[in-house]
Amino acid sequence: MMATEALLAVERVHLTLGRHPVLQDVSLQLKPGEVLTLIGLNGSGKTTLLRVILGLVAPDRGQVRLRPGTRIGYMPQKLPIEETLPLSVARFLTLSQRATRAQLRHVLVETGALAVLDSPLAALSGGELQRVLLAKALLREPDLLVLDEPVQSVDVAGQFELYDLLGRIRQRRGCAILMVSHDLHLVMPTTDWVICMNQHICCAGPPEIVSQHPAYRQLFGIDHGRVAVYHHHHHDHKHDTHGQVVKPEEPH
Amino acid sequence: MDDFLWRALIGGIGVALISGPLGAFIVWRRMAYFGDSLAHSGLMGVALGLLLGLDAGLGVLIVCIALALVLVLLQRQRQLATDTLLGMLSHTTLSLGLVALAFIETVRVDLVSYLFGDILSITPSELYWIWGGGLLVLGLMAWLWRPLLALTVHEDMARVEGVPVFWVRLGFMLLIAVVIALAMKIVGILLITSLLIIPAAAARCFARNPEQMAVLASGLGCCAVALGLWGSMQWDTPSGPSVVVAAAGLFILSQVWPQARRSR
To answer: Which helix (DSSP H) or strand (DSSP E) does residue A84 occupy?
Structure first.
């Protein structure tokens, strides 16, 4: 395992946007075929880190190294649909690369969205759109899939299905996956590694380890009496050293 | 029909043909205000042309291109939103043009013809400019089509997939500048944007893919030019505004057309 050359190496990346430090001393490595998930609350810098890795934003310091020749398939967090632009799914998939009809069918079968091949993009449901976006990323035969919140606007049952699908894709294709999520428990069966972020890296490791890590539990406000409050949980309170919720001094 | 009418028709159709694909992208990319601002700066180009003894069209082209470049650069700062920038530049350049024209006392300038177009006075050499420039613009547009479409749908995704986003966007802005210089004679700088966006908006409900929308927009633009000219002859109305009114009429028709609803 140690002998494999890393597909992606992020080394001591710092980034400040405006006056706010967004990334502080972030380093990570991803080997071919591995799945790494970045988790953190809103505004923790997960998406920004992805953008730095994709080369969309230049870091202030540090560097991102990709193994030469690495093909990236990118699935953005959200695809704003422009109603005035008439675009079918097939046309959308071939926007920046050519593919035969058979290739399109093949990749849509893989992501379970063959039925919408000729539908207008604007008519898709949230789940269908995610599957089409995933298909577009796969069409590039990527060595590395970069997914920003791949289950956005998908209902809970659909979220499990999508992560399940990602697991199968990784097994079948052997591509590495780097994704962003805000729910550790959903990605647990799919991911090899988890990095918990809050501008800097709070803790990292296999998902079982991270889920028990005090830094993770504190960040997500677990351990204060109720079980399974990690979902849709707003971090609007403080904890003391024992994980008890501290009452705010003043009502906001 | 008289010669000047034929020239008006042929020139108008030339501009309408280019307006289709460019107008479609202006609608998709929500750049109507950008086009308007660029067009308004055209008056400064007219003044510049007169001051330097150049052709007015050339002056407009130079100023529009300069303004497009300034906008691309200014968009990189984040203090002011783009629409604020556009609003300032648009009216400042329009006013500068008016002020500069007032200083040129030696030449009598027919302001109204620049503002609202003077399609009936197109000369044969202007026709060559419109068709030559128009064919060039159409060729470049065909070349930029795929990357421009990719970055219109999702800029970051296009960039990751290898589209040279900055250059494609810049190229498109420059093409808009060229079209404004070419179209000024037809509908005037205050009305140019309408010739770009109204046919495209009308084409939306009938189109099933981007190319269809562009071609339909060109066709509807040609109809608007022909109808407008005919109306202008019939009722002795100003030609540029008549073309725009005809385009608006076609748009309203497209909205109530029974087939339009279904094919969305």
So the answer is: none
